[in-house]
Design goal:
21% helix, 2 helices, 149 residues, single chain, five-stranded antiparallel β-sheet
Length: 149
């Protein structure tokens, strides 16, 4: 087992099995079971930087979740300057509309190993305005429900 201490208090543990490992931090755990699945568990998803760091890692791990279909009127923005512009536009729109929701973090906002992740993307809407858009990214698997007779 190899342990690497990296930026922002990360500890990476690799088991030697290709594609398997765990990245741990004091307040959350991100486990990678294969090249196509990832889950994050936390009570405190943290700062805007932490949310965006998890988002960037998710983009590498599951790029299929970040492809814009040709028919989509909404484009996901991934450039740092575009993300900052979308956050600024969203904050201004919320202030103008007197919305009491100042949180415009972009990234993985919440996660559960059973329910999946709540992500917030920086986007360009069909009318070319910028903003943020919340979406659910599910975990692969199935749900078994009992039949009550």
């Amino acid at each position: 087992m190899k342990i690497n201490a990296g930026n922002a208090g990360w500890i990476a543990l690799a088991s030697g099995i290709a594609g398997a490992g765990v990245c741990a931090r004091a307040d959350w755990i991100w486990s990678v079971a294969s090249k196509t699945t990832a889950s994050v568990a936390s009570n405190d998803m943290g700062s805007p930087e932490d949310c965006l760091a998890r988002y960037r890692a998710l983009r590498v791990e599951r790029p299929d979740c970040f492809r814009d279909p040709a028919s989509s009127p909404i484009a996901i923005l991934t450039d740092d300057d575009d993300i900052a512009a979308a956050q600024a536009d969203e904050a201004a729109r919320r202030k103008l509309n007197k919305q009491l929701a100042p949180d415009v973090r972009v990234g993985v906002l919440a996660a559960d190993p059973y329910l999946g992740m709540l992500a917030r993307d920086a986007v360009r809407f069909a009318d070319q305005s910028l903003g943020v858009y919340n979406r659910h990214i599910g975990e692969p698997g199935c749900v078994i429900m009992p039949k009550i007779a």
